[in-house]
């Protein structure tokens, strides 16, 4: 239900983290949605997303953009991630004009999303808020690691992979970009933001993780 | 997931990929070893760790172990026909009307972020919520885990199964939502895992969000970021 909804971090960092996606409704506009998913991805690619993907197909770091486009022919959902609100806003405007008739959802800072929608003449329909993490929070690693791993809502990016990547960067075996892409690969839906991950990895290094 | 002992060359590249620390290094044998009790069958090691000797393999999973894969590997289509762990919820509310005005959608995800949960903890939380008279979302895959969805009792023999996370999802009225949240906060202290909580609603005609108001009035803080449905789906739900 919620897989782009619990991304953690500072406001400054979250301002570089946008997911714009299209999702068909079963029994309503689900049949034959594939070409609309492809059309949405064509629109997204105009604005240089830092990741794209769809579950069961993969993300742009474990497969190719062409294969994702091809796979979308039979898909009902597609995700595009941006490191800049202006790019997300441009896609939202394009999606409104294209009028594909399938639900479009944005995950980002609510105040910023509201400003974009006002500019685009869009009245938001529904919103979902996170009330945070409850329960045995002492089981969790430091926030520097969670800020990275919560970018995969399905929990497929492990805490230990972050630790290993910081270790590899510290030893000079990997640069930040390669480490961030390595972290992006397990997130099969393509909602992980590797550009943001680079900055967050630097923060982990500063914190001695 | 299994490791083929004959093929494993002991590079241990797969170890760090495991979200639940089920893979360990057996330095004496020079092989990676998977603890089957911990493994949630998410498939991350197989998909992403690039095993140089193709030593990882996915055996066929029987009931109830198959539940681990269904709730942990988003690439697997569930019996509900929905991929992932939940429903379309907010994402398609503009065309489904799943959460009409006056109602609040609530989802509580056990095991997230990144710690995993046993299904027995789902039962504990479900019983607490059901005592308030709410009804779980039928299209959420957890619905099929219950022997009796009115009591929250799980099907026999599945309580010990571990999954990466599982979501209890339901809607309630704006009036009843604060009590539900307080109950959730209480039971969250009794389970042996973490729980993330979502609250959703349709925007009011004046542009305010009832879900946010309900949460704040109940003393719960809301994260600054979240998910917005832009209302571009067709046919747009009436009312």
Characterize the structure shown.
The complex is a heterodimer of chains A (209) and B (239). Chain A is an alpha+beta fold. Chain A has helices at 11-14, 34-45, 65-71, 85-98, 110-120, 143-149, 159-170, 176-184, 194-206, and strands at residues 18-23, 51-54, 58-59, 77-82, 103-109, 126-135. Helices cover 20% and strands 22% of the residues of chain B. In chain B, helix 4 (119-130) runs antiparallel to helix 5. Chain B folds into two domains: 6-59, Alpha-Beta Plaits; 85-217, Aldehyde Oxidoreductase, domain 3 (Alpha-Beta Complex).
Structure characteristics:
A: 209 residues; Alpha-Beta Plaits; five-stranded antiparallel β-sheet; 6 strands; B: 239 residues; alpha+beta; two-stranded antiparallel sheet; 13 strands; 20% helix; 22% strand
Structural class computed from helices and strand pairing of chain A: alpha+beta
Low-confidence stretches of chain B: none
The number of E-state strands of chain A comes to: 6
Structural class of chain B: alpha+beta
Helix residue percentage of chain A? 40-55%
CATH architecture group name of the largest domain in chain A: 2-Layer Sandwich
Number of domains of chain B: 2
Radius of gyration of chain B: 20 Å
Give the count of helical stretches of chain A. 9
Helix residue percentage of chain B:
10-25%
- Which shape of chain A, going by the Cα principal axes? globular
Low-confidence stretches of chain A: none
Q: What is the arithmetic mean of pLDDT of chain B?
A: 93
CATH class of the largest domain in chain A: Alpha Beta
Count of individual beta strands of chain B:
13
Question: What is the name of the CATH class of the largest domain in chain B?
Answer: Alpha Beta
